[in-house]
Amino acid sequence: MSKNKPRIPKFSELLQNPMLMLGFGFGSGLSPKGPGTVGTLLGLLLFIPILLWSEWLAWLVFGLGLFVGSYICGKSSEYMQVHDHGGIVWDEFVGIWLILLVLPEQAWQYWLAAFITFRIFDIWKPWPIKNVDEQVEGGFGIMLDDVLAAFYSILVIWLGYLFIV
Predict the structure, then answer these.
(1) Which member of 6, 39, 84, 158 has the lowest number of beta carbons within 10 Å of its beta carbon?
(2) 3-state helix, strand, coil in the chain (%, to 5)
């Protein structure tokens, strides 16, 4: 896989390749600035209505997203010839979905806390997230570091809820 600055695909490529469309978060990963942040925001905005409408459907969407996520991210990575291309944001979708599912309450304050804490941990990558990001290859590795960042976020949000709120 290339170590040079990765190219950004055109939206027309996403339209021609459904796996790339999913991997690049329906185009949100094409953002020239902060594609992970834009992808997380879109993932949050798409998932909240599902979660508010039907919790069991939200769990189903999350489960399917997690189950096929390694394949989606792996195939997108292979197509782009870059491991964990910054524009691949399906992993951000699944990470924010996990946090949203287990919030203490479904309220805008918790949605904001989910977004902020997830972005902090996904960017900062404290131990062992950084090790996983660097050492676990393929789509599974792309997904795993974001799931770990989600767990850190969940821990922080619930500790705040239990000890501050």
Answers:
(1) 158
(2) 75, 0, 25
Give the CA count within 13 Å in the CB-facing half-sphere of 145.
Answer: 27
Supply the pTM of this predicted model: 0.94
Contact (Cβ atoms closer than 8 angstroms) between residue 157 and residue 121: no
Cα dihedral sign, 123-129-134-139: negative
Report the amino acid identity of residue 67.
Answer: F
Q: Which two tokens stand for residue 109?
A: 């304050």
Asked if 98 and 150 count as a contact pair (C-beta separation under 8 A), the reply is: yes
Residue 92, burial from CB neighbour count under 10 angstroms (0-12, 13-18, 19+): buried
Read off the tokens for 161.
Answer: 């809820």
Structure-token pair, residue 139: 């789509």
> How far apart are the C-alpha atoms of 145 and 163, rounded to whole Å?
27
DSSP secondary structure string for all residues of 76-99: HHHHHTSTT-TT--HHHHHHHHHH
Main-chain phi, psi angles of 107, to 5 degrees: -145, 155
29-75, pLDDT tens digit by residue? 999 999 999 999 999 999 999 999 999 999 999 999 999 999 999 99
pLDDT-based confidence at 1, cuts 50/70/90?
very low
